[in-house]
Amino acid sequence: MQLMFLGPPGAGKGTQAQNACVKYDIAHISTGDMLRAEIKKGTELGSKAKKLIEAGKLVPDDIIIGMVESRLKQDDCRNGFLLDGFPRTLEQAKALDGIVSLDKCINIVVPNKHLVARICDRRVCTECNGTFALKLLESDQCELCGGSLIQRADDTEETVLSRISVYETQTKPLVDYYRKKGIVADIDGTGSIESVTKDIDRVLDKI
């Protein structure tokens, strides 16, 4: 099973991707997590990525494509994988066509008015990258591993609006690109996490 999830910032791609990867026993490939790991390690790539991410901009295609191609060769991808946050541009999508063939593209649809509030309310674990809604938390510790929860530097209202603008102009055209290939499944992302998961599972169970 070779999948990708599309949707604007705050649509819930990360949470739903984690759920799907556990259920179907496939590798979760998040370019965002990969870049944040580079930032945490203080590498040259991490330094460049940090400046771009905090400004709400995309990291150059050649860097991302190289990272993903290398990741797809690892052993845990043999049973399948889910791409989360890649591709984000038509150029990346065309490059991906030369590497793998996707079975399904899940497009999580959420109106813009819901996105800013969702992202600004988001808190992320520094240890396991678990994602939580601030309004639902009972403490400042991760419910999964006990790690510390933080607000990402790119989860402020100003940066979120910039990210949504970038998505609209550069990433949203991918929906049409993959729809022409006949692999897009639109999912309403405005419901509860559980209801969205069930809708996605109904699609993936048919593959």
Task: Tell me about this structure.
The chain has 207 residues and is of the alpha/beta class. The chain has a single domain (2-111, 158-204), classed as P-loop containing nucleotide triphosphate hydrolases (Rossmann fold), CATH 3.40.50. Helix content is 47%, strand content 16%. The strands form 2 sheets. A 5-stranded parallel β-sheet has the order 2-3-1-4-8, with helices on both faces. Strands 6-5-7 form a 3-stranded antiparallel β-sheet. α1 (13-24) packs across α9 (193-204), α4 packs parallel to α5 (90-97) and α6 packs across α7 (157-171). The longest helix has 15 residues, at 157-171. The radius of gyration is 16 Å and the shape is globular. The model has no long low-confidence stretch (mean pLDDT 89).
How many helical elements? 9
Spatial separation of the terminal alpha carbons: 8 Å
**Strand order in the sheet with the most strands:** 2-3-1-4-8
Which sequence of SSEs, written as H and E, runs from N to C?
Answer: EHEHHHEHEHEEEHHEH
How is the main sheet built? Answer: 5 strands, parallel
- Inertia-based shape: globular
CATH topology: Rossmann fold
Fraction of residues in β-strands = 15-25%
Domain unit count: 1
Q: SS-based structural class? A: alpha/beta
Assign the CATH superfamily. Answer: P-loop containing nucleotide triphosphate hydrolases
* Rg, Å, rounded: 16 Å
> Which percent bin holds the helix content?
40-55%
CATH class, please? Alpha Beta
Mean pLDDT: 89
Number of strands: 8
Low-confidence stretches: none
What is the second-level CATH architecture? 3-Layer(aba) Sandwich
